[in-house]
Amino acid sequence: AAIHVLVSIPEFQDTKKILEDRIISTMKRLLTSPEAKLFKAKSGREIELTHSDDMKKLFYEYLGISPTKYTKLENISTDEDVLKRIDSPFAQGVVRLRKLSKLKTTYVDGILEAQVNGRIHPNISLHLVRTYRSSSSDPNLHNMPRREKSSMAMIRGGITPSPGNQIIEADFGGHELRVETCYSKDPIMAKELKDNHDIHGEWAVPLGISRFDSKNGFVFAEIYGSFYKNIHPDLQSRGYPNLLLSTVKKTEDEFWKRYKVTRKFRDEFIRFYQTHGYVQMFHGFRRRGLLNRNQIINSP
Hints:
Helices cover 57% and strands 5% of the residues. A two-stranded antiparallel sheet has the order 1-2. With 300 residues, it is mostly helical.
């Protein structure tokens, strides 16, 4: 299905010019920094600010910084989380450059290239993602900035309602946990959701992390089938290098002790699949095929 969204072309063109100017000034500042001069002296060439290999060489080889995060392929990471923790104006400048470049290329350029007569017509597909979530393309309307106010204002500010109409937003509010509870009938989870209990905030306390990281790094991780040995390094990479594995394990034990009905339901759900060869949904759909543990419990 294609939808029709009105956009302000002049506003996006102005935003593009602003971003281009900021990108140029940020690059000039970085290329004249002591770090860039060190890289040139050591390697004999200019540093490529958008090249991850150059970032690794600079920070970990030339500046002697110890790696704090690795990718799934065991490569040293220089992602945003890593650079944010490096106490260096250069590292923060690289983070800013990456954000500015993404705003321009992914969002502004994407919208300007896709617009026709001041409207974009993104496709909303329901058949492409294995998890049955919807996806969006040309451009991706699902992926608009919302975590940083300045980025959000730049991009979302150019999406406007047609004359006589308004743009409204609806939030499901803990939809994943509510669906989980509909299946498991966990009375503890049901009561907490009904009472608007801050589940994410509560589990942030014993871990000593923020509510945001508790939500995305612990609660949802447990709900979607992860466990403490995988959760621990992820939380450390989010800015908690001193968080102990034993603390995450203890918190996980308490989590599933409370939501034991949900855990029992999951075990039964897996046994049903192993016996019948499919996962049964409330709406009648049966998911068949070779599924691993997480795919089974996450299907509903």
